[in-house]
What does this fold into?
Amino acid sequence: METILITIIDYKAGNLTSVKLAFDALNEESEITDSVKRILEADRVVFPGVGAAGTAMKTLNDLKLVDVIRKVVDKGTPFLGICLGTQIIFQRSEEDGGVDGVGLIPGTVRLFKPISHFDKVPQMGWNSVKQLCRHFLFQEIDDNSEFYFVHSYYPVPSDKSYVIGETEYGGVTFSSVISKDNLVATQFHPEKSGKVGLRLLKNFCAWKKD
Amino acid sequence: MLTKRIIPCLDIRNKKVTKGIRFQNNIDLGDPVELAAKYYDDGCDELVFYDITASTERRPIDIEMVKEVAKAIRIPFAVGGGISTISDMSRVLLAGAEKVSVNSLAVENPRIITEGAKAFGSQCMVLGMDPLKVKTSAKIPSGYEITTRGFRHRTGMDTLEWAKKAEDLGIGEIVVNSVDADGTREGFEIGLTRMIAENVGVPVVASGGAGKPEHLVEVFKFAYADAAIIAGMIHTGKYTIPQIKEYLRNEAVPVREKW
It folds into this structure.
């Protein structure tokens, strides 16, 4: 049987070790790479990342990966965005004075502006995700399970039908899980979200596998 | 709703977890990787490891241990002790840690905070501070002086001013470890924790003094801590993480329910 290869896109936006370790724990073969060839021939692609949107987009452009990401998503490869990876597949982010994203999801990414002094920015820690519909990604994951978040900005899709999970923070209910065709994206870090997060990654590995 | 984090702290000495009072009378509590895996299974939200002898022995942090921990658990963990350069930080993070904690190093060289935040992002940079209660003075208006090197050295720096400065420099989180409460198990220092939580925009982690679940309720409800570090109360087996979480839930403190 052919092994399924997952590529984790390396665009110098944060530490990808824990993403790789999570797939190792699931016995799923994965590799961290910035190679256009490896990304295009992968069976599944993970687009993680932490840091600032402006720098990340610049690096993606320098590495000529923007079109590669569009290509893999266009050709139907199961694609998972995580945290900053989720934010920069949107059309636009408010971060760094306004940055154009990869543009796979119509909408913008906005900064938390909490009313309460005690809602810190970034949101850092475990928050619950309300599942808005049944989805392969949520298999055997209880509704309102908590996942690990670290972010100052949150995605606002212009088409609500792409939102499959929601989370409350800083006085807003934001889209924490997005799904569009063969693309899924989480604002939280499944690779650091304990057994529940591992289950979500396992679901991703089995998703659209005929 | 964002839940309050419960963070077991593992002090490492000679590759073993140890626990003492004010860095004295240390007792051996076992293997760090095994203990981390146990607390992970029990539902802790994050972990912190301090290699407490790395600095005094002038050796780098035990990177193999960090790698083993990263393989064993799937939650964020921070590592402190024995970190003196950006490349030390890089090694720890690439080994699989989520955050690095700096304390004496940041006092001696505050620029390291900015350099670390630029290289890895603020969310990776934790400031550990060890404030000692002193008489309020012109130099120490908050009444808490920063100590370093395991409480042995008094810096003459004001705790609140240092917290604000560290935030400006790009720190992502502040662990407030009360020298006076550390190891006593008589409760967190509420006034100190609250003072920092009210005056900085980044998450604040309370540390020092946790002895029973009521202490965590106090620090979350009255000091507005975002997270709390516990050590002796669980290392001794007196309490378990599920017990502590149940107590907090009954007191209407939001905690992670499912893991």
The domain at 6-206 of chain A is CATH 3.40.50.880 (Rossmann fold). Chain A has one domain: 6-206. Chain A is about 25% helix and 30% strand.
